[in-house]
Amino acid sequence: MGVIKPIAAETALIDALDGATGWLAQLREATRVQGLPTRRHEMWKWSDLRRAAGEITSAGQITVTGAADGVLEPADGETVELSVSASAGASAAALSVVVKSGRTVTLVERYRAEAGSLGNIHLDIEIEDGARLERICIQDEAEEGILVASSSIDLAVNAHLNQVAFSFGGKLVRNETHVLHAGEHSEAHLHGVYLLDEGRHNDYTTSVHHTGPGGITHQLVKGAVTAHARGVFQGKFKVDRAAQLTDAKMTHRALMLDDRAEIDAKPELEIYADNVQCAHGNAIGTLDETALFYMRQRGIPLVQARALLIESYLAEPLDFISDEALREQLRERLRDRLRAIS
Amino acid sequence: MLKINNLHCKVEAQDGAEKFILNGISLEVPAGEVHAIMGPNGSGKSTLSYAVTGRDGYEVTEGSINFNGEEIGDMAPEERAARGLYLSFQYPVEIPGVPTLIFLKEALNAQRVARGEAEVSAPDFMKLARTKAKQLSISMDMLKRPVNVGFSGGEKKRLEILQALILEPKFLILDETDSGLDIDALKVVADGVNTLRAPDRGMLVITHYQRLLDYIKPDVVHILAAGRIVKSGGPELAHELEAEGYDKYIGEAA
């Protein structure tokens, strides 16, 4: 099997990662052998990264602040603010996070990607026995940039993960989260919100692999997409035979704000245990015309009525954020964005 | 106050077919009067309320709607609302995620801004809401919940009237306000409506049954059949209908 002929973005990325180790070395090798993922890869069929990166010709820089030496081991009760910023060109970074046994930690990740960037970042997260992690991924400043933020989360027994991903998309933004779920009183909550204006693309891909019994996974993802924008949701629950009594629920709901919007969703259950409660629901709809008329009849102008309806629709997953100030801040971001696009 | 002249309206059905529902309604409700519209199912009662308030999909093809000397037939629903037209819905709409108090404050201030009036401050609004809610035995807890979500039929209808008490419209259209109400709830709602009766305010009460009109006494009763007013008269007309039914009017309109 021959190696593919690389495009400029791939060459830049391969060169930039010369001598890399760990996940970065794997990324380099995968890019060298297969190139960047295209729609021919099942996991990327709605997010053609290679095509999106077509105009990138040089290496860029990805800057991570808040994690010295790429390793984080937050103290109990600590809130870590992590900033990830990708400049124009192709770049990649990786870091690891360990939440030690019994600790409760909050990780607020803020991502920026400049126009012409292809930023890749990977987080290796370990949540030890009895530890709790709340993770808020804010991807609202990618504009014309490409950003792929992936994570592998190892969830031990009695551990708790609460993740909320918030995105306005970008030229192509992908949040890919993999959870290895040990069960035995451990819980994963994987929520998300996306609001996409013209030209934006957002992809929220999650997979949860239940390996032990009695684990809980709950997921609520909501989105709204305007004309010429694309929202992608791929959710997978895999439940091993050993993971009896797993309770896993996945819900994805999205609004098409225009006939020319595109939303692609693939909910997937792969279950080998026979005594489990697993469900998925996926609903794509439009704004409720009756509610719009009701609001307008009360005097609320159309633009304001639409914004209020969309905001209240999208705000639901934000309720899972414990920090009230952060929750309100993101709701405010939604409100501003809705004002700007309507 | 409200003058409807030779109004024709067509509605686009879900299958895309168009249907004429109103076939030349003429009606005038002067300030201070309450008129009732009675008619069998499918006679065009709800369509009339939507045509007057400007709902999308209810296209006026002929005739005019004049409100306080202004033609409003081409105005957006919110423009008509700001001029003082209020519709109490037969089926009030649930709006998940929007607390009732926030919704009402947005509505009141949007109307005030449209009329060039100053916005009402949050404390003043709360005071207003509390006073009016008390009149209708509505708890403030209920108003913190999302609009109509999880409300009983009676609670929804009471909330419709509360909104009218707060927004103080110049003209009310009550569409089947009595449907889904038991007798106690009906009295509360009717009391609320009666407090809104005023020399400078008009009302159109749409109802299938005479029962509501025992509590909200109309000045004039119109009978609507097949999209036309086939007879108008005093309150006694409602009693006559109750005794004799709609059959003879359905015949007349055809």
From TrEMBL, chain A:
- The domain of life for this entry's organism is Bacteria
Tell me, which GO biological process terms does this entry list? iron-sulfur cluster assembly
Looking at the record, the residues that make up the SUF system FeS cluster assembly SufBD core domain are 88-312
InterPro entries in the cross-refs: Fe-S_cluster_assembly_SufBD, SUF_FeS_clus_asmbl_SufBD_core, SUF_FeS_clus_asmbl_SufBD_sf, SUF_FeS_clus_asmbl_SufD
The family database entries (PANTHER family) matched by this protein are listed as: PROTEIN ABCI7, CHLOROPLASTIC (PTHR43575)
Which NCBIfam families does this entry report, sorted A to Z?
Answer: sufD
Protein name as catalogued: Fe-S cluster assembly protein SufD
TrEMBL record, chain B:
UniProt KW Signal keyword: no
Gene3D superfamilies of this UniProt entry?
Answer: P-loop containing nucleotide triphosphate hydrolases
Every ABC transporter domain range: 2-251
GO MF term list: ATP binding; ATP hydrolysis activity
Under InterPro entries, the record lists: AAA+_ATPase, ABC_transporter-like_ATP-bd, ABC_transporter-like_CS, FeS-cluster_ATPase_SufC, P-loop_NTPase
Pfam families referenced in this protein's UniProt entry, alphabetically: ABC_tran
**What CDD domains does the record tag this protein with?**
ABC_FeS_Assembly
List membrane-spanning regions: none
* Key words, A-Z: ATP-binding, Nucleotide-binding
Q: Which SMART domains match?
A: AAA (SM00382)
PANTHER family given in the database record: ABC TRANSPORTER I FAMILY MEMBER 6, CHLOROPLASTIC
Under what name is this protein listed?
Answer: Fe-S cluster assembly ATP-binding protein
Organism placement in taxonomy: Bacteria, Pseudomonadati, Pseudomonadota, Alphaproteobacteria, Maricaulales
